[in-house]
Write a structure and sequence with these properties.
With about 375 residues, the chain is mainly beta. Helices cover about 10% and strands about 50% of the residues. Strands 2-3-4-5-6-7-8-9-10-11-12-13-14-15-16-17 form a 16-stranded antiparallel beta barrel. One of its GO terms (molecular function) is porin activity.
């Protein structure tokens, strides 16, 4: 065998071995294309598509810290008048809150399918105790809406449809209705500024929750134009077979000024007799929270500049309760706002007994609120 034949044979053997190894090599699959988050701008800013679905989702909420002082510097739903006997606890009233919100939207053959949820986590003390504690989790909202039909946990249409009583923190110095309830509602929008709502409601609390198969009923109509809006709502309390209603006018006399006035009337007298006893033993029902038959609220918002606004509300009822709330709200940076509010409450002589009188006829307090919204 000569050298040439040896070299050729070695080369052939090497090629054969290399080819066999190549046949056994692992083939790496091509990577799947990445599915990036797709923006959904159908329902406004902040929505994105849930991967693999046609549902748009938005996540948001806020972190808040409140510092309250004085006789009515409360912020957890308790007024100074919630005290039974003795003075309010003599220290700062503090509360930290984290609120988590979700919104979803999807177009269907029956209209837009929407949901909204809001969970609240609170830690702090109360108007009657200086002990700070974890106040637990509350479900503020959890509803489903298809077209105009809404079901689930909401606030009463007696308040949401006609509007809250101003952009102040303590807007219930003279209360204008109860809030938390399960609902079956239908909203109608004529498209020309005219809207309406009909709502069957369960109520809440020892007095407000329905005690039979008959629900509370709320109906409302609204007409909105560039100058503002006029709204009316009426509610039937099935527990006590009482009726309450509110009428509201909103106007914008200037671009940076909005004003409102709202009046309420209820068939439940809710007054005291000459001996100081409640004429109506059950006190307030679910809707007519004010004292006496009638009440009135008014106020507005003046936008000083793009970061600062002044908000105020005055309220009065037949029970001679008079409340004043005023604040300055300043947005330090986008999404972070500080609000300083002062509140005054005069407790009238004719206040119904279940809205326990304060130890002072005239009370004053204030709240400093820090809130980061996202």
């Amino acid at each position: 065998m000569n050298i040439k034949s040896l070299l050729l044979g070695s080369a052939a053997a090497l090629i054969a071995v290399t080819g066999a190894r190549a046949a056994d090599a692992v083939v790496v699959a091509e990577p799947e294309p990445a599915e990036y988050v797709k923006i959904c701008d159908v329902y406004g800013a902040g929505y994105f598509y849930i991967t693999g679905t046609e549902t748009c989702l938005r996540i948001g909420g806020y972190v808040r810290y409140d510092i309250g002082a004085g006789d009515i510097g409360s912020f957890d739903g308790a007024l100074a008048t919630d005290r039974q006997d003795g003075d309010i606890q003599d220290t700062w009233k503090k509360n930290a809150r984290f609120t988590f919100k979700t919104w979803t939207g999807q177009e269907t053959e029956l209209g837009t399918l929407k949901t909204y949820t809001e969970m609240r986590f609170n830690f702090g003390n109360t108007a009657t105790s200086n002990t700070a504690f974890d106040k637990g989790v509350s479900v503020k909202f959890a509803w489903i809406q298809l077209g105009g039909l809404r079901v689930g946990k909401d606030e009463s249409a007696f308040d949401t449809f006609i509007g809250y009583a101003g952009a102040v923190i303590q807007d219930t110095l003279v209360p204008y209705g109860d809030f938390d309830t399960n609902v079956v509602q239908y909203y109608f929008d004529a498209g020309n500024g005219f809207t309406a709502v009909a709502s069957l409601e369960e109520g809440s609390g020892a007095v407000g929750t329905i005690d039979s198969y008959v629900p509370h009923v709320v109906g409302g109509v609204k007409y909105t134009q560039g100058w503002g809006a006029i709204t009316g709502v009426v509610a039937y309390d099935s527990n006590y077979e009482e009726v309450a209603g509110k009428v509201r006018l909103d106007v914008k006399p200037m671009d940076n000024l909005s004003l409102f006035i709202m009046g309420g009337y209820g068939t439940d007298d809710n007054l005291l007799d000459d001996a100081g006893n409640a004429i109506d033993a059950h006190g307030r029902g679910f809707y007519k929270q004010w004292s006496g038959n009638w009440a009135i609220w008014g106020g507005g918002t003046y936008t000083i500049n793009e970061k600062t606004s002044f908000n105020t509300q005055l309220s009065y009822d037949e029970g001679k309760n008079f409340g004043v709330a005023a604040n300055i709200a300043y947005e330090i940076v986008k999404g972070f706002k500080v609000t300083a509010e002062v509140d005054y409450l005069h407790v009238g002589a004719d206040t119904v007994t279940n809205w326990t009188k304060a130890d002072k006829e005239n009370s004053i307090g204030g709240i400093l609120r820090f809130q980061r919204s996202f």
